[in-house]
Amino acid sequence: MHEGAEAGAEVLTVLYGTQSGCAEHLAFTLASLALKRGFKHCRCLPADEFLLESWKDSSPLVIICSNASQGEAPDSIRVSWSRLLEPTAPSMEGLRFAVFGAGDSLYQKFNYMAKMLHNRLKQLGGEPIINRGLGDESDAKGHDEAFFPWILQLWRALGRLNVDEPGQITEDFFKFPLLTKYNVSFIEDSVASDAISQKALYNEETFNCVVKQNVRLTAKDHFQAIHHIAFSRVVTFLEGAVERSDPLSFEVGDALGIYCANSDAVIDSFLAQTQLSGDVVICVTPNISEGLIQQRSQPFFGRPMRLRFFLMHYFDLEAVASRSFFSMLARFAGDDEEVRERLFELASSDHLDDFMSYSHREKRNVVEVLSDFRLVRPPLSFLLSFMPPMRPRIFSISSSPTFDVSEIHLTVAQLSWQTPLKRSRKGVYSSYLAAAVPGDFFTCFLWRGSLPLPSKPVPLICVGTGTGIAPLRSLIRECAAAGSIWSDVPLLLVFGCRHEGKDYIYSNEWSELSKDRLKKLTVLPAFSRDGNKKFYVQHQLGRHARRVAKLLDEGAYIYVCGNSTPMPKDVAMTFDEIGTQCCCDGDELRGQEYMKQLRKQGRYMVDSWSA
Length: 611
Description:
Layout lengths: L10 E7 L4 H15 L4 E6 L14 E5 L12 H7 L11 E8 L8 H12 L3 E2 L4 E4 L7 H14 L24 E6 L1 H4 L14 E10 L9 E7 L1 E6 L2 E6 L7 E5 L4 H11 L6 E6 L5 E4 L9 E2 H8 L8 H8 L6 H11 L4 H9 L5 H7 L7 H6 L7 E4 L10 E7 L2 E3 L5 E3 L1 H7 L6 E7 L12 E6 L3 H13 L2 H4 L3 E7 L9 H10 L4 E7 L9 H7 L1 H9 L3 E7 L3 H15 L6 H13 L3 E6 L2
Parallel strand pairs: 1-2, 1-3, 2-14, 3-4, 4-5, 4-6, 21-22, 21-24, 22-23, 24-25
Antiparallel strand pairs: 7-13, 8-9, 8-10, 8-20, 9-17, 10-11, 12-16, 12-20, 13-15, 18-19
Helix pairs in contact: 8-9, 17-19, 19-20
GO molecular function, one term: oxidoreductase activity
GO cellular component, one term: cytosol
Keywords: Cytoplasm, FAD, Flavoprotein, FMN, NADP, Oxidoreductase
């Protein structure tokens, strides 16, 4: 028996706003469970691919949303969110909705976007089915810790729980539904010869950037290589069969999204594990036979192409295998009970430490997992449905739109590390960029950022660590390009790195700019490993608290850029203390209000990421 007013609903619409793919993964998990719970059909797609005017007629509607940058809308819900904020936004009267946030408490604006979306839909007349759910990636079980109890509430409110069902949903992976997103057709060469695609297409407006220069900025004996990469400002836009070359227009705070291709070596390994030929022609289409009636539009849908070309451009073979990938593999373990049990253990949240040790900490990719379980051979359609697509990586532009008229600059740290089992690992995209030579080209798109210059010259306080200097360099060089407008305005840069002689990047540049163009540019470096005691950017700010407070009272804007663990929070606490002690005579309540107003005025901006 079911209870609830919407037990008879046949279609569940699940929309997601994602930046890295996490919210998308949760959305497909929800859609799979919904079909198991009796919904005949599900939609599961990016919010921006579902007409906003159709939302109110699509009850029940579930939205799973992550954050981007400063609590802003992630890429796949940006347009919808912008329209929802307009005075002419469509009414949501009659909409029954639920919102779940895929956040991380490491960030200051934890699940800010999900909270705002929930509130705005209510303002427009929508009715929440249940209260919003707030997932935290930093929880012991990640987002699952909040996600599955929240799903239980959702099923109960929608009348999809049996009245005698226990009060907790357990992850019974033996019965967990496998939702295959794609159909894969193998086509004879003679039939497809004229239609075989030899050009990679993407959902974004892409262009080719040509490398002009690649220089290592850090010392050769430093543990990390940081590269300054200069591209030609003139890029080639790819519009179907037509190509055109124009200078790229961008603003301070923008970034380049870069697509990478899988290497021949990893493709060869995948083909060997699956016993498939890279020369076969395939055509991938959306699978609607299992209840998933609408999903994200993919640029490869309906385009015949050779399997090697398809794998090179569209699926991330070096991505870490997910728990759902292990769950899928377990269904194809045949009669080998030991292998099936092991795969289900790796998929279960009850054995999360085991999964983290085997997969996450070792960064075992899907190809390596297939090698470890070489007798398990799922069909290609299942493998593709549970492997992540090739996603672009976002790199902040470190050049100025005005100062650097002929070039686009990136500041890229090549990631490399050893796993607990002493395996050497490298970041795929950062290594790809670090190895670039003049003449190489990359497929890119422009990602609009959110670190604008003030509308008029006021003091700037810039705090950055490591490659977090990139957007700050863009900003400072843009000020330098303005001539006398910014030449006598105080600019304070607090930059953190390990050693003065190894990774104090762009130091000579700051000296030159302060001599010629920005006479009041002051750089306060914080070298965390040069002394007996670790010294970070927040300590440098505290040491110069009176100076910082004076700039704040003069209307300064604050920009904080760098790794999210834990620098932005530590810096925010230091600014709060400066606001209280130096701007408000030690009055804590006044200090809190002072900093609250500063943030409300848009004078405190953060651009941070997790490594």
